[in-house]
Amino acid sequence: MTTVIFPSASNAPMAGGEALIEIRNLRVEYGAGDHRIVAIPDLSLTIRRGESYGLVGESGCGKTTAAMAIMGYLGRNGFATRGSIQFEGEDLLLATPARLARIRGKRIAMVYQEPSASLNPTMTIGRQLAEVPELHDGLSRAAATQRVLDVLADVRMPDPEQVVRRFPHQLSGGQQQRVVIAMALLAHPALLLLDEPTTGLDVTVEAAVLDLIGLLREKYETSLLYISHNLGLIATTCDRVGIMYSGEMVEEAPVIDLFRKPTHPYTRGLLDCIPDLASDKRTRTLSSIPGQFPLPHERPSGCVFGPRCGDFVPGRCDQHPVPLEPATQSHLVRCLRWSEIEPKPAVRVSTYVEPEAMAPILDIDRLSKSYELGGMSWSRNSVSTVKANEDLSFSVRQGEILAVVGESGCGKSTFAKVLTGLETATSGGIFFANQDIARRAVHQRSQEVKRAIQMIFQNPDSTLNPSHAVDFSIRRSITKSGVRKGAAAIAGRVAELFDLVRLPRQFQKRRPDQLSGGQKQRIAIARAFASEPRLIIADEPVSALDVSVQAAVITLLLDLQARDKTTMIFISHDLALVRHVADRVVVMYLGRVMEQGRVEEIFSPPYHPYTEALLSAIPIPDPTKGRGRRVRLTGDIPSPVNPPAGCRFTGRCPRKLGEICDSVPPPEHKVSSTHTIACHLPLDQLVEVTSVIAAE
Amino acid sequence: MARFIGKRLAIMLITLVAASFLVFAVSEFTPGSVARKTLGPYANQEQVDILSQRLRSNDPLLIRYTRWLGIILGLEADPLQDKSLGLGFTDPRGARYFGNLGYSTLYKLPVNDVIWDRLSATGLLAGLSFALIVPLSLVVGVASGVRIGSKLDRGLSATSIVLTSIPEFASGVFLTAFFVVLLGWLPGTSPLSTTGGWSVASQMVLPVAVLVLYDFGYVARMIRASVAEVVRRPYVRTATLKGLSRRKVIMRHVLRNAMIAPFTVLLLQVNFLLSGVVVTELVFAYPGFGRMLLEASLFGDISVIEAATLVTLTIAILCQLIGDLGYMVLNPRIRIS
Amino acid sequence: MSSESVIDAPATEIRASRRRFRRWGILRSTTATVGLAIILIWVVLAVLAPVISPYPPNEQDYLAMADPTPSWGHWLGTDNLGRDILSRLLWGARTVLTVAPLSVTVAMIVGITMGLLAGYCGPIVDAVISRISDIVLSFPIIVLYVILIANLGPSILNIIVATTVASAPGIGRIVRGLVLELRTQEYVAAAKLRGESALYIMLVELLPNCRGPLIVDAALRIGYTTITIGLLGFIGLGLPPPNPDWGGMAKDATAMISVWPHMAMFPCLAIVSLVLGFNLLADGLKDLADR
User: What single DSSP character describes residue A630?
Assistant: First the structure.
């Protein structure tokens, strides 16, 4: 239960020396005959011994395909039709299946994205892990099990002897990922491929896993190919970075060079759309990359990024395929004009017009929601209580954006459901429009209230009914809320909404499967605004979207909110985004409020210990800045069933005072009129804590 | 675990009672029907009325049902076996004993002397068939499931679709026409006695073949679908990328997971499969339980119908229970929650 | 290879995703097309039976009884009473092709209702409906049919009733499973938030998304009902004359099987071909849905 707090400098081993794996002019195609799709036209990439190489790109850029090509696992329809992959003296593309089986797991191993799906649900952890040394090193069952226990200790798995007897579903997400990492390391591979290994993990767990990967890399002397879409993660873990776009490498450089001097327009575009902790909506509008990702069969001749590039010169950039040129000895760019383009300083202009603060519109008063889980387990007779929300109290003013932040199990989704009426509260009050709606389910609420509270959901793939046209639910919303009557008025309102979310009117009659994720989410926004609501709850509205799309959708949302002076409750786990978007923030953990205040107050000391850990876990896409203080939480997020009687955070708190934290609920310190922290630590101690975020 | 089994047994019992009551109700709905069916269509109305009265057929349905249950449990004597009725329904075990299922008007024997032999004959048929079906469909299902879309898979799929389009009576007709009429290799009927000059084994061939042909197609497709789905899962990719050979991946990782669904579904579908047994028995005049039930239904032999459905229901519900238990055992996610 | 299209603020080029298929709709699947073709052939034959049937189905040709094997006068031969088999098959097709789809339609309506209610309306309704389904499903299908028909008498209405009782629980199970999954989708929550009633949500939001599996199941079930109708005829519980019943034809002919096997084989072949059509159609549709 110890925390490691030390000022960090990059302690990556100096990479250099011989190449471990060399991909030369790789070309990967899918399908056959007329339906050939070229996923990767021409890729070259070298990873040196001991090096950590980050491969970055958005979905569909081909980074996973490249990893699968290395593993020789392209599926029945995929073929590497040109090029070679040189590894330890042989060409992997020419390897026989038997040879591949020897290499996989032993020399090259992989860590996957969804750990729960990547483990065999009917086999014990121990068995699955032991297969690797039994197979590759010929160990006996007993010896293999011992090796498994050793590696589990290396990945910081608590209680390895118990764990090997368990099944995957009995472990938490973080533990499952550690098992997957252990599985990859058991045979001491020379190269480790990591495909988005921390996607889906909570922020604090992710930070711990990243640290672990860094330590293991040193101990096992493994090279890493780290695939991600998250530039912040790459910045903190990699030595060299390659940016991929539509199957091509468009820029490659050592990590510090890349972030200090991003040369390719795409890279610069990506960096410009990521929110950062030093600015917010008032000082900066997130820029986005115009245009669309080309489908593989629609790649333009000439520069692939051309149609979307702000520095595009017709006649020059669209003639021939652009080669990869060195900007400096180690920095490669695929751009004809790289030397001409002025590195523009990041445009920090905001278009956000802030509505004036007004009276409170929503009052949450000691809101609690508990669930009973009972009668389901075969062995126990006891009924367990999940206290999903307990004693939530805060208010929201009209026109402001309140962010609710927390990791899984913190109760933010439950809160959203209770607020919207999809669930009812167990106790406490929600005061809106002079009524207490806490115990009224949707169908019990008045038309006025239903119309006034709307929601934007998280998953663009399930937010629209696949059997209906996309405008269907918008129309229903307008009709049911009575905000317009008559066919003409309704049609007019629909058209208006489409314009507002910047979608062409022809899209009205399309089906959801004909739209992209970002487009679907815009429809969801249009639907939420359709009934002219006063309060919108946005539950992780952009977390399922690509980075560049996120920026556009967030900007849209902010514009609409400011225009209509709609109050918004913004639920998210992405703290950088919250910094950008919110006016006030509520930090939740295991169902209770840990800290609340204005956004500047939350992101600077004094902190609640949990907030401190959360903030220090944010991966910053800037390796040039010194890292802030590193506060790491051990263990995983505990289950919300039968929580402790005292402070909820007591199990993992690095600043735990003692017994009192376990048994007595913490008092609320009023740091300012708008800022409260619930902690047993005295206020003067909290105030002395230094900032966790590196200075500018 | 014990609580679970207890709960399921209770539900089983309720289902059993409810279902048998339904059968009882449908068969004995009209008060005079029992007496009529017992005496046959040639008895005159007066006799029917007298018997009805003796049987207290005018009592409400529920009472009659409980009485029937009482007879089975040995708490009451079967009124039809009363010597004073002169019907000649004698049971060497007496008119009142535990497990008295009544007297069969069709076979002129106590039901207990008919039903259990028939049941074991059917058991033999079903057992032999399933002993062939299970390994065959496993092999075929797995082979085609791991290679969906390949020639092997398409060929096997086409074969199973064709096979499941041929109902048992049709394949009975075809096989009979071919092997009995044309080639004369096998007997046309299977009364399970050797008086006709055919060995018992040869009499089993066609009925088993008919059952296997139909059900094999069905079971193989189910296994194929399950295997195909499991093969796509990420943990199979993990197993392959660990370096395991294809064979090991299939044996260790795919099979166990792929068998969960078919095993439970099949047990729950045992009724579907039993139907085929009934038809086969009819086609080949096999002295089995199903044929007995059919004949009794057509004849109107109430005691046999009610007793037989009780037995069938019990078997079906037991299979459901085994299916549920099996699912729990095979799937650790449910077992340990 | 997913191609996630990225949309921006000012829309520049917006393209609809193009779906490229050579063949349209059902024809994309060879299996489904073949199945559909078989079914359509039978439908056409059935519809045209009064016109193309060479003989009235119950007319007895005493001359042919001496040698009922296929001949120029009787392409498929005659049965033991001298009735032309081809004509009887054509007329029998009319019965099968009306009763089977009709029964399945009624069963579908009942089953879908059961499934929707069980899946959406909460655990109590679910428990009641599921218990009832369990009771019905604990009978072997054929036993159910026999008991019902033997007691109610063979008629088209009773076959429809028996089919509904036997099939609706199974359909209900399928729908219930789908509904339980679908009701967690966000669009259902969105519908609730705008105050839609439970009935609306069940019929407008949930049911259309059950289309795929239900259509496949319907095709399979019509095939199976065809078998059952044939089987009932084979047992002797078929439709009473004058409708020629394929199953009944086979039943009457089994007595002759050692001498005139064709009398039993042709009706069986007719049944097999029709069921094959439905099975192929169902398989092809399922394949399309998975693609």
Answer: -
Please report, for chain A, the start and end positions of each structural domain, with discontinuous segments joined by +. Answer: 1-107+191-276+299-345, 122-186, 360-375+383-584, 604-687
Q: How many Å lie between the alpha carbon of A480 and the closest alpha carbon of chain B? A: 42
Domains A1-107+191-276+299-345 and A360-375+383-584 share a fold: yes
CATH code reported for the domain at A360-375+383-584: 3.40.50.300
Residue B295's closest chain C neighbor by CA? C235
Cβ atoms within 10 Å, residue A298: 13
Contact C186/A465, CB-based, under 8 Å? no
> Using only C-alpha atoms, what is the Rg of chain C?
24
Query: Which DSSP letter does residue A455 get?
Result: E
- Residue B181 and residue C138: Cβ atoms within 8 Å? no
CA distance C220 to C242: 28
B83 or C34: which leads in pLDDT: C34
Q: What is the pLDDT of residues B2-39, one digit of tens each?
A: 777 788 888 888 888 888 888 788 777 765 677 777 77
Longest dimension (CA), chain A: 77
Residue C264 touches partner B, C-beta closer than 8 Å = yes
Q: Is the pLDDT of residue A8 over 70?
A: no
Topology of domain A1-107+191-276+299-345 in CATH is Rossmann fold (3.40.50)
Interface contact A121-B238, CB threshold 8 A: no
Q: Which residues of A417-446 are buried (b: 16+ CB within 10 A; e: fewer)?
A: bbbbbbbebbebbbbbeeeebbebebeebe
Distance CA B1, CA A32 (A): 53
The interface residues of chain B toward chain A in range 249-268, judged by CB-CB distance below 8 A, are 252-253, 256-257, 260
At A650, the pLDDT band (50, 70, 90 cuts) reads confident
B87 in contact with C, Cβ within 8 Å:
no
CB atoms within 10 A of CB B155: 11
Q: With beta carbons under 8 A apart, name residues in chain B contacting A123.
A: 252-253, 256
Q: Are A615 and A576 in contact (CB under 8 A)?
A: no
Exposure pattern of B190-225 as b/e (b: 16+ CB <10 Å)? bebeeeeebeeeebbbbbbbbbbbbbbbbbbbbbbb
Q: How far is C130 from chain B (nearest CA, A)?
A: 11
ipTM of the shown complex = 0.85
Q: Which of A127-141, A535-549, B147-161 has the lowest mean pLDDT?
A: B147-161
What DSSP letter does each residue of A359-416 carry, written as one string?
Answer: -EEEEEEEEEEEEEE-S--SS----EEEEEEEEEEEEEETT-EEEEE--TTSSHHHHH
Strand partners, B104: B109
Contact A21, A87 (CB under 8 A): yes
What domains are defined for chain B? 2-112 (no CATH), 119-336 (1.10.3720.10)
Tens of pLDDT, residues B43-97? 777 877 777 777 777 777 788 888 888 878 877 777 777 777 667 777 777 777 7
d(CA A64, CA A193): 10
Range of the domain at C47: 3-290
Tens-digit pLDDT profile for residues C143-174: 788 878 777 777 888 888 888 988 999 899 99
